[in-house]
């Protein structure tokens, strides 16, 4: 496989890393080449096809792995999966402390670790049929395609700056898609490396699989903050690059408010589990019905339903309660 890098600006390139068997199709990995070192932003899954594409692209750019650092925008395996494989003894791997911790926690879990069962049990409490929950977890990319070993991350936080070549990159905390999602902003060139915080052609998934927290509220706050920046070019984690950053952020804010209204409307007929809410929501999918959704897609859909339910609950619009071992909302 030969991957031809696309030059975006001097010293800044995009590599399209294929994501086999995944509806996202490809990851945009960005490579910045400086005088002394290179920086790779996001990596692709920990699977041979992704590694072959990454190595091909880096070879085309004559990047020396021993003089290359990595920046991981967030924990999901399509962005972090190859971090341990690509990092050398002289590499630094930057990530937020929250997502770095969660990546290493996932890597530490054996396939038979009881914490995977805890996840399946929580899904069942939200209405997931047990067998579907088992299949969803066993086929989840985070379960199968995470880094091969734990990583000695260097934690970054809001306001930290990375200097590489002609680019001065400011770290921006943008929680929502994950708790520790981090963007990079180059103020002189007005470039935003957006990870999965902003995508142009698809909507970032905002999921929640915990008993507390409100990730959708955090995401909307992060979008409002990004909308206030002067951005001339957005470099997203997937699909095409775009220039209308503020407009897209506002579109996503409006989208999630409509979704929250849709969820509240479904509950008007009576109490429902998150699984039942997700089954009633409209999805931009090619499947004919909810029953046709594969378990991994149902997992993302139910997680998004939970995020919207928690958002509404936090504003007093709906209430959560336990009934017969199930979490229901009314």
From TrEMBL:
Gene3D superfamilies cross-referenced by the UniProt entry: Ribonuclease Z/Hydroxyacylglutathione hydrolase-like, Winged helix-like DNA-binding domain superfamily/Winged helix DNA-binding domain
Pfam family for this entry, one: Lactamase_B
SUPFAM superfamilies: Metallo-hydrolase/oxidoreductase
InterPro entries in the cross-refs: Metallo-B-lactamas, RibonucZ/Hydroxyglut_hydro, Sec-metab_biosynth-thioest, WH-like_DNA-bd_sf
Positions of the Metallo-beta-lactamase domain: 26-238
Identification of the protein by name: MBL fold metallo-hydrolase
Taxonomic superkingdom: Bacteria
